[in-house]
């Protein structure tokens, strides 16, 4: 591996380590509280639209991307 390739790999790993990505599942009220907390701390980068878990399930799931530091 060349020096340039090592530097690029290191930079890519550092960028990837800056974020945490996760799916959260819960009632709409619970999700709203979680999103408010993440937003207030300044860690919330992206949140997807809510998706209902199933026809008889009242829970929703959302994808979050949070700043790690």
From TrEMBL:
Organism of origin: Micromonospora echinaurantiaca
Recorded superkingdom: Bacteria
Name the record gives this protein: Uncharacterized protein
High-level lineage: Bacteria, Bacillati, Actinomycetota, Actinomycetes, Micromonosporales
